[in-house]
Amino acid sequence: MAALAVGAVSSNEGTALSDTATSLEQTAQMDVNTAARPVAFAGQTADAADFIALLKPRVMSLVIFTAFVGMLAAPGGMHPVLALAAITLIAIGAGASGALNMWFDADIDAVMARTANRPVPAGKVTPGDALGFGLTLSIASVVLLGLIVNVTSAALLALTIFFYAVVYTMWLKRRTPQNIVIGGAAGAFPPMIGWAAVTDSVTIESIVLFGIIFLWTPPHFWALSLFLKKDYEKVNVPMLPVVAGIAATRRQILLYSLLVVPCGVAPYFMGFAGMFYGVVASVLGAVFLGLAVQVWRGVEKADRKLFWFSIIYLFGVFAALAGERIVEGLMV
Question: Domain spanning 45-201 has what CATH number?
């Protein structure tokens, strides 16, 4: 009887363990299946901070800064109130495109560690609310900029939103390793918009400012993608390191760095920036190129160094241009 009792207990324990293992396997499988799609809305009440996060404040700060420099660099001037309105609307338009990007990319954002806590995949804002928020701000910013400032700047802002939300996010990002190269145009428009807000025109000078950011974007983001390669592999986004490999990416970083450095000093040689700008752009460009060479040679952690310094580079050259204009204004 004791033997039968022990056997019965063992049998029951085996059944329980088997059921537990099966349950764990099913749970794990559910986790794998749900990892590739957005987290379901958790029923939380979104607050203002969640909607502000949709606007990508860090990206927006760069947009505000470069657009402001474009306005300062442009010949002529604007009434301070009008200038403030223009900068605000440009920032709102850029933020709107960020909200549309988060709405569309919620599925891959939920998988990548860097983006998993964004409002939509985290379940704080519903996809519908993010879409409506982005569309409303997009339309309002473009229309108001056209009515308050001028049509040229409004048209460029509309192009920026379309390029980032549709051309880059919906079309290029998941289809080609050149997504950053072509899609980078969206981030390069703000100084051109700022210039157009003052002059109601697009000139070679504003195109050069556009070119600095356009050529800067690939080495900046490819450096990031080198040390986040596994994240992009998880979500099947064809970033260059994933598709072409690390060696090819390093070569492309060096190639674009060789292009962005001379473009960075072009404002001095074209006469719409002074000696101070020329020196700053040359020194920063030399460091940028040196780090790109290190990345090309495969020096450890050079990709991280280039990524972070590239931010300093872009801020530095635009700050130098702005500083010159401010000093010139004070001396008049």
Answer: 1.10.357.140
